Structures are given as structure tokens and as C-alpha cells.
Amino acid sequence: ASAFDAVPMAPTDPLFGLMAAYKADTFDKKVDLGVGAYRDDNAKPWILPVVKKADEINRNDPSLNHEYLPIAGLASLTSAAAKLVLGGDSSAIADKRVVSFQTISGTGAVHLGALFLAKFYPRPENQSVYVSNPTWANHHQIFQNVGLPIAQYPYFAKDICGLDWPGLTASLESAAPRSIILLHACAHNPTGVDPTQEQWKAIAEIMKRRQLFPFFDTAYQGFASGDLAKDAWAIQYFIQEGFELCIAQSFAKNFGLYGQRAGCFHFVAAPGAHAEDVAKRVSSQLAILTRSEISNPPIYGARIASTVLNDPALFKEWEADLCTMSGRIVAMRKALFDKLVELKTPGTWDHITNQIGMFSFTGLSEPQVQKLREEFHIYMTKNGRISMAGLNTRNVEYVASAFDQVVR
Ligand code: PMP
């Protein structure tokens, strides 16, 4: 007998199951709209040209070795990462109230933040972490694993395939003070629906009045709009408004460094006389949490991102690469929309072009998604989310015509 006879079988991760089914499909026109990674117009992974250059620079640098990084990671990366997300002229950085730790990509950053909040954030009545409904599925698992209770705020309105503004604001108005609110900084996953700047201002107003704590997850800066500052606007606005907050930052999508696991966690202390002291104490605890879990973060992806972020010429090239990726995605949104309009596909499809970032909530139902997979070999998650990166000039017409047939 095993001591683990009672371990229940966990369900397989639905996304990885989808990937396996797609791989096993031998149909030549099969389409993968599940993939959460950028693909070029040939449906192939794309190494950013600037990343190739940075790779070359690092591989040929005789001063580099494979020693351990410090617990907090590569300092040249974490400081540049803070400037990237907070703005180079950030008063929070100048006031020394920002603490930055390199993490195992965005997932590790959300986890480190969750662990820190579970241990140190005062929640006198066992206040919850509010995540959007729906959200990136891993948010649920990560916060559950550190023992934080989860609640949901309405986010997506099915009738308009857009933001459920009344639901979202009512939920924030009724959340207990000191609740933690997980916010997607831009390119909301899985819906592709972001608040407008006016709506962000209203969200900040409610959150300040009701003493809610913001935790921003930013996995798509620059990848969403092609404009790094625009995609960080909400975070920078909240900091201007004097919030104390956490940020989980991923370099997976915007550098195409998925498997290198490059990311950062930032804690920004509230402005005030003791801010620098709070930051120091928080930093000392983050060091213990990091040490106990990973000792120190991985070095190679961090070097590549750091090389690009700290060299003005390479940074400019990176911005151009970001425009290549975001531009192709915007073009695919338009191509899909135009084709559906041309086919007079029943329903409205404006949300395809209104939504932003890698993902789009199409509004397709579960039976329609099933039919697309069985009859057309088009793979997507059963909630009707598609990855725009899976579309290209060769398959977009096929996909539009399949959508047309399943909704009729
Ligand atoms: N947060 C969100 C909302 C995401 O979509 C992702 C990527 N799927 C992540 C975090 C983190 O991904 P990674 O760990 O690969 O950086």
C-alpha cells in the first residue's frame, strides 16, 4: 500500500490538453487558436531580432560566467524593469520606495506577491483576493495555493462582448475594505477587454475611497498596443494617485522569452516619511521568501532583457519589434472582422477589432467551439477564447468561413 492511496487524480490542464490534441491532428489545414505565444505569419515561433542581437552580445562576452545571481536577481534588469513599468521619471523610484525582485517570469511574480500578501498583508476579517470573472486560470490556483480566499468581480458582459462596467463597479463598491484586487494592467487575458482611461480613473477613485489594495498583473506591456507607455498607463496612474501596490511583470510575451522565465515582482510603498524604511523591511522579507523557494532566479533570459533595456539603440529596435508583433495582431483582427462582415455572418463582430492584445473572446458557444474542432480542425479553449497570434494571412479566410458555418 502507498501512503498516497488517497491522492485524487487532478484534471489535466485544459490548455495543455488542447495543445496535445492539436499536435496529434494530421489534417493539413488545422489551426491552433489556443496557443498563448506569438506566432509569425508562417505560424512559427518568432525570435525577436533584437533578442538575437542581445543573445549574440552575451554569448560573446568573455567576462560572463554561470555563477549564481544574487537572491533579488540581476540588478541591471530589476532596475530597468522598474523604470519600464513605472516610467523613468517615477517619483516612487526617486523616493526609494520601490522594491524589485527578479522572479520565475510572470507566474513567479504573481506567486511571490501572493505569498508575501498571505504572510504580511493585514486582512482583519479574512478579506478576499478579488479576481476578474473570467481571469487567467492560474490566478485561482496561485492564490488558493497560498491560502488566500478568492472572490470574483464581474468583468465580461456577454451581450456586448465588452466590459461589464456596472457589475465591476458594484462589486468594488461592496468589497470589504482591505480586500486585494487583482487587475490586469493591459490586454486582459482571456477577454481582450480593457477599461478605458476614464474607467481606470473611476476604478482608482472607488478603490481609494474603499481602501482596496491593487495588485497589477502586467504580462503584455508593449505587446498590447505597441506603445510601452500606453500599456503601463493604468499602473502609473494608480501610483500618481498615491496607492501602495504590487506589480507582477512578465517578459515572456514582449521579449518572446517564454521558456527563459524572465520577470519581476515590484512592491511600491505608499508615499510618506517612512516609505523608504517600509520598502527596506519588505525587501528583507521578499529575500527570505525567494531564498526558500528558488534561492536565486535564472540568469540567461535576465541578461538578454537587461542588455536590451539598458542600451538606448537596442531599446529602440525592441520598440520596433513590439510594433511588428502588435501590428500583425491588429491586422489579423481586422482581417477576421472584414471577412465575417463580407460573409454576412449572423451577429455583431465589432468586439473582434475593439478588443486588444493576444486574445479575443469571440462569443462562440461551447457547442460551436466543439464543432469547429471536430469538423474544421480549428482548436480553441471551450470558453470561445481565440489567440489572435494563431491567425495568419493563409488561414484567416478558412477560419472566418468556419465561424460563419458554425454560427448559422
Ligand atoms: N498573467 C497573465 C494574465 C498572463 O496571461 C500570463 C501569461 N499567460 C502570465 C501572467 C504569466 O506568464 P509567464 O509566467 O509565462 O510570464
TrEMBL record:
Keywords: Aminotransferase, Pyridoxal phosphate, Transferase. PROSITE patterns: AA_TRANSFER_CLASS_1 (PS00105). It comes from the Eukaryota. The keyword Endoplasmic reticulum does not apply. GO terms for cellular component: cytosol. GO terms for biological process: aspartate biosynthetic process. It is an enzyme of class 2 (transferase). Residues 29-402 form the Aminotransferase class I/classII large domain. It catalyses: L-aspartate + 2-oxoglutarate = oxaloacetate + L-glutamate. Its cofactor is pyridoxal 5'-phosphate. Its EC number is 2.6.1.1. One of its GO terms (molecular function) is pyridoxal phosphate binding. SUPFAM superfamilies: PLP-dependent transferases. In eukaryotes there are cytoplasmic, mitochondrial and chloroplastic isozymes. Homodimer. NCBIfam families: PRK09257.1. This is Aspartate aminotransferase.
